[in-house]
């Protein structure tokens, strides 16, 4: 019987958070080992545990998987969250890449120089409301189904919910022009595995605070 | 009878080049739409609703207008049996190609470095290639002793690693000196061919891009 997947990362969202979301959505229990100081990262590297010297790394099914997208694709495929054919996969991939780009902008914000922060924050809001959310709003409107792809729950839905919540942390009323997304958010949040993940005490991580950012900068020499 | 895939991009490598390589490897003839050279052309594509997230690359294929480089690559690889035979092989391929894509990002962005950063970025690019990425692929080949990276058959991983090797060698001809198995893997180039080889970013006459320069630059930045 396979052990639980084991996640190696810092004790914050970063690139691991989407993986936590997807495992949780799939109802998979997982363990976490946190990189808290540079020495922890060096030890993982010295042990040959990190293919490209980087985290995230997830021990799963006898593999030490690295590279966020590789890990997410594997989990999605394994748990039937990746569509039923090549075309549905293509749609899911496109949608997920969009939300990845948006969340990437939000994630990068704390690490930018102070002068750039205000401009980049404005760009995030602009991109969310004029480039990304309108696409998903239209997808849902056009087919009238509950889920983004193939009339069934997929990785794309989980990822979009994560992006919506992250964007709302930036601007609480950011969904006001998007009624379909508001309904989507309500529906997906109520899926039992997701609902559980959204409750306090789950392994979901909070937004980065100053202390965490300082720690990350030290560990990764940023 | 299916029409040929049609690629929408600038006349350069950028994010489309890996897609060109993969189509060529799969033996798929493809067309390139009029190269994006002016702001007007880009705005027309936008107005036509052809770009899902307002960005290129875009590939018209099998009646879809696919965007997002990885989505396009995943589709082509899956369709043409270049993505391994099961989930575990896929996982290996995904890990390996994500490594090459990280390296390619550095290579792609290097010509856009500010003068002060150029030397540093060059050194980092070569260092990552020879200390972080190439050693991994060399070890994979050494450990299993097979000709191809995954599952004893040609996959997108081989193509993408080859592409990265060739690009790094353009900057540092001795980059493979410590990697005898990767040197052997270069023979793939001969029988894969690359009929649609395009000019490198350095060689391109940048002035011809005119107003597209900023779009390209910001598109690259926002895609990373």
Automatic annotation (TrEMBL), chain A:
Span of domain GST N-terminal: 3-83
InterPro entries recorded: Glutathione-S-Trfase_C-like (IPR010987), Glutathione-S-Trfase_C_sf (IPR036282), Glutathione_S-Trfase (IPR040079), Glutathione_S-Trfase_N (IPR004045), GST_alpha (IPR003080), GST_C (IPR004046), GST_superfamily (IPR050213), Thioredoxin-like_sf (IPR036249)
Claim: Transferase is one of the keywords in the record: yes
Keyword annotations of the record: Transferase
A GO biological process held by the record: xenobiotic metabolic process
Enzyme Commission number(s) of this protein: 2.5.1.18
Family, per entry: Belongs to the GST superfamily. Alpha family.
Name under which the protein is recorded: glutathione transferase
TrEMBL record, chain B:
Designated gene of the protein: LOC115648263
Stretches assigned to the GST C-terminal domain: 86-220
Membrane-crossing segments per the record: none
Molecular function per GO: glutathione transferase activity
Record keywords, A-Z: Transferase
Ranges where the GST N-terminal domain occurs: 3-84
InterPro entries given in the database record: Glutathione-S-Trfase_C-like, Glutathione-S-Trfase_C_sf, Glutathione_S-Trfase, Glutathione_S-Trfase_N, GST_alpha, GST_C, GST_superfamily, Thioredoxin-like_sf
UniProt GO BP: glutathione metabolic process; xenobiotic metabolic process
Catalytic activity: RX + glutathione = an S-substituted glutathione + a halide anion + H(+)
Protein name: Glutathione S-transferase
PANTHER family per record: GLUTATHIONE S-TRANSFERASE, GLUTATHIONE TRANSFERASE
Top-level lineage group: Eukaryota
Family assignment from sequence similarity: Belongs to the GST superfamily. Alpha family.
Xref: Pfam families: GST_C, GST_N
